[in-house]
């Protein structure tokens, strides 16, 4: 009988404040969707770092014939065969180096044409303009400075470039987007909490006569508060379910269907469905508990029991 009464009171409260309940559901859904999206973005960045940092190389670009007048490091002229042999031998002696691959000007030109052949600038590039280089694979990509210190400024070396620096710019941009999503999520969360508190206030005020009678007949504080708390929790749970649907739909649309980024960007290791599914219980738990706790604190002030 008590459970039936509590459920009936929840239904009455939701019907009386239908508009505000709808606003709570929408704001909770959006804030939790942004929260889940931020978590997935962080995991995606971590996955990409693990994937790409394991593949990046350190490139040691050698001086070419036309670099003496334009590149300060190549003032002594183009790299000689002896210098190339010495560089390769010294690289082989370094413990941090896993593998060394030499790339000639012709090979560099071929790779450039494969990647940027459709660019208008591609027709103006000739093989002799492409620098020779050593592609160095490290056991630990973070040890780049060991190679840079050993070979930067050496005769025949034009520059030493760590490909990680290019990736760091990309990951920095993605992390910035993640922070922006978290900021918007926090703003939406504050709005949702304010709506929940106001909804509970209105609901408690509209039923002040019933709660007064319940006090007089000796009803416990929990028995009086339970319908209001469960109304907020129910609205939050619906918002959490909608947030889960948005996360699942977003993962499918962006990666598998619609945009199909997995097919278009097959060089990127995208997160799988398991990463999304493991975040859903957390989203649902927050959607259920956050409104209930907010309602409990609101009732302590606005519903004296």
TrEMBL record:
Gene3D superfamilies: 3.30.70.3040. The keyword Plastid does not apply. Pfam families: FtsX (PF02687), FtsX_ECD (PF18075). InterPro entries: ABC3_permease_C, FtsX, FtsX_actino, FtsX_ECD. Belongs to the ABC-4 integral membrane protein family. FtsX subfamily. It comes from Streptomyces castrisilvae. Its main location: membrane. It is found in: Cell membrane. The keyword Nucleotide-binding does not apply. Residues 183-301 form the ABC3 transporter permease C-terminal domain. Forms a membrane-associated complex with FtsE. The chain crosses the membrane at residues 21-41, 179-200, 232-255, 275-299. Part of the ABC transporter FtsEX involved in cellular division. Coiled coil: none annotated. This is Cell division protein FtsX. It is a multi-pass membrane protein. Keywords: Cell cycle, Cell division, Cell membrane, Membrane, Transmembrane, Transmembrane helix. Residues 56-160 form the FtsX extracellular domain.
């Amino acid at each position: 009988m008590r459970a039936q009464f509590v459920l009936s009171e929840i239904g009455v409260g939701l019907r009386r404040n239908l508009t505000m309940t709808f606003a709570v559901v929408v704001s909770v859904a959006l804030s939790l969707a942004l929260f889940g999206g931020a978590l997935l973005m962080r995991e995606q960045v971590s996955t990409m770092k693990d994937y790409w940092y394991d593949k990046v190389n350190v490139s040691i670009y050698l001086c070419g014939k036309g670099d003496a007048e334009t590149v300060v490091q190549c003032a002594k002229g183009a790299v000689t065969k002896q210098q190339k042999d010495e560089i390769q031998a010294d690289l082989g002696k370094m413990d941090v180096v896993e593998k060394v691959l030499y790339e000639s000007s012709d090979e560099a030109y071929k790779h450039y044409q494969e990647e940027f052949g459709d660019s208008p600038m591609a027709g103006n590039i000739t093989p002799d303009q492409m620098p020779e280089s050593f592609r160095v694979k490290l056991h630990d990509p973070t040890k780049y400075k060991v190679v840079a210190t050993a070979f930067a400024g050496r005769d025949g070396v034009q520059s030493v470039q760590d490909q990680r620096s290019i990736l760091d710019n990309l990951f920095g941009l993605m992390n910035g987007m993640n922070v922006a999503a978290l900021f918007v999520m926090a703003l939406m969360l504050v709005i949702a909490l304010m709506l929940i508190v106001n909804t509970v206030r209105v609901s408690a005020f509209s039923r002040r006569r019933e709660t007064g009678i319940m006090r007089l007949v000796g009803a416990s504080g929990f028995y009086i508060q339970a319908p209001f708390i469960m109304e907020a929790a129910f609205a939050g749970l619906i918002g959490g379910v909608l947030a889960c649907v948005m996360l699942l739909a977003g993962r499918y649309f962006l990666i598998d269907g619609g945009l199909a980024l997995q097919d278009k960007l097959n060089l990127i290791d995208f997160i799988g469905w398991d990463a999304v599914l493991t975040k859903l219980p957390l989203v649902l738990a927050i959607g259920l508990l956050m409104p209930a706790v907010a309602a409990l604190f609101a009732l302590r002030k606005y519903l004296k029991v």
